[in-house]
What we know:
Distance between the termini: 10 Å
Radius of gyration: 15 Å
Shape: globular
Structural class: mainly alpha
Strand content: under 5%
Helix content: over 70%
Number of domains: 1
Order of helices and strands: HHHHH
Oligomer: single chain
Number of helices: 5
Number of strands: 0
Amino acid sequence: MADLLFWLYLVNSVLLINHEIDSAYWKEWELFKLPGGLTGFLLLHFPLLLLILWGLILVSRQTFWGLIFSLVLCFGGIFAFTVHTYFLRKGHDEFNKPISKFILTAILLVSVAQLMTTFYVMMH
């Protein structure tokens, strides 16, 4: 199961990183009213991407902190799907392309599978 968790974390990371690339296209900093424009948005992503990739290393080493990072990534994915679905239902045009919706849906599905796998690994 630890191998499955590694692969789910990797796939979810790729999906979330692609979502963040899509977020730059949609100017997500405006949607969330983040200061700093594109520069602030990109600077924010240096530590975020570092943490995501560090978590992958910790998951591959099967550490306790790897499980914590896995949980955080799962909840981050579920949050991304939920918040963008909310904005779409409120009439925002951002993330309304088929590829954007596909990525968000895939993030939700993989996040749920990863969450269940993480809990399984934690219990055994």
